[in-house]
Amino acid sequence: MARLSIEHLNKKYGDLTVVDDVTIDIADGEFLVLLGPSGCGKTTTLRMVAGFVPPSAGKLTIGTRDVTTLPPWKRNCGLVFQSYALFPHMTVAENVAFGLEMRKVSPADRGPRVAEALRLVQLAGFDERYPRQLSGGQQQRVALARALAMEPDVLLLDEPLSNLDAKLRQEVRVEIRDLQRKLGLTTIMVTHDQEEALTMADRLVVMEKGQVRQIGTQRELYEKPADRFVAGFIGRSAFLDGEIAAPGRFRTKGGLDIACGAATATGAATLALRPERIAVADEAAGCANRFEAKVEHASYLGALLDIHVSLSEHDRMLLQIPNRQGAAEPKPGETITIGWGQDAGLVYPRED
Ligand SMILES: Nc1ncnc2c1ncn2[C@@H]1O[C@H](COP(=O)(O)OP(=O)(O)OP(=O)(O)O)[C@@H](O)[C@H]1O
Ligand SMILES: [Mg+2]
To answer: Which domain covers residue 323, as residue numbers?
Structure first.
């Protein structure tokens, strides 16, 4: 168990920088989730921490040890990958013991450590089975047991649940998190799944193009996205392009005049609104900003309705309204009144 510090980490392949000046401090026992689009450098970052990819620059510290140039087996990181990578010809116990054998742990010591790791992932008694005799979720737990048997200082999980179906994912998700808390393991997990990230993380890191865009709690990322990318990536946002004509006044490309407290510095800008901040029909009555909107498309999502509307030829946006029993569902072609307060939006420099 230890604190992990990643400082100014950089990775270049030829001329291409795939990890660009990444700095993240992870507290002892913290569960940090790395999120970002495909190819943004998540796996490369994890592999550098584990010692499988040498950094081009930067420093890695686990506890008080500078591990930047140490080989993987001296870093004591436990790794679990997307493909469980179990050896098919070895039993569960042999799979879990494999890393211990590599590290020359004596056979007498291996047995109890394997048993304890299997007990932790609730697979006691599965020792003699082969991977093909296990479900996907059980195989994933064997992979986790193999990492835990090493008694790692830091646990690194690279999309460990992506091979599982939705229901199993949720179960294993809870198991991993409980276990991580119980053992107080400093953990970094990579995932594509936002819900997974939001439910599991103590803090999240959003990466794009090799760079950290924002680090924060779920609430910080959702309510105060640092830039337009994060506003679109974490949860959903409606974006309106335009400019700030005067402090507090945002003018869209389509000519709508919007009262917006966040509009301070003048110039080309994008207004971002969370869909649930937009009120519809009677509920829009008291709002500082009110517009007639034409419904273009409506999707039924169970608890919510997604409504795409246009406010002008150039201004389109997404609303989400609760699906209330008996309430009329807006239909394409209908005109509805929508509104939001002047504190509802965030403003970012325009990226076009
Ligand atoms: N050995 C390599 N040689 C050259 N380029 C590489 C190498 N490994 C990774 N890359 C490139 O580095 C970038 C980051 O890759 P990485 O695997 O870290 O992305 P990722 O964020 O994990 O993506 P995904 O979500 O798809 O797993 C990609 O553009 C990838 O093509
Ligand atoms: Mg990856």
So the answer is: 237-349
